[in-house]
Design brief:
Largest sheet: 4 strands, antiparallel
Number of helices: 2
Mean pLDDT: 96
Strand content: 35-45%
Radius of gyration: 11 Å
Number of strands: 4
Distance between the termini: 10 Å
Structural class: alpha+beta
Order of helices and strands: EHEEHE
Helix content: 25-40%
Shape: globular
Strand order of the largest sheet: 2-3-1-4
């Protein structure tokens, strides 16, 4: 399992959190998604044989949330 942390612009509403967690959480291979509202970060754990950090990033961007940077752990 791999982990990725996306640094985002600050979130402005709790519905943003649910939208990202629900959408990214449905990706095949994602085991956990956590949006950290106050720090403007999204952390995800995923199976790298089923998806990758770039796919998760593009999903977040398509939802309308710019990703400033990412760190794969």
């Amino acid at each position: 399992m791999k982990k990725v942390v996306f640094n985002m612009e600050p979130f402005t509403c709790p519905s943003c959190v649910k939208k990202i967690e629900n959408t990214v959480g449905k990706v095949n291979g994602v085991s956990e998604v956590k949006v950290m509202f106050n720090s403007g970060r999204v952390r995800a754990e995923f199976d790298e044989s089923r998806t990758d950090a770039d796919t998760l990033e593009s999903m977040i961007v398509r939802l309308g949330y710019p990703v400033l940077s990412k760190k794969v752990l």
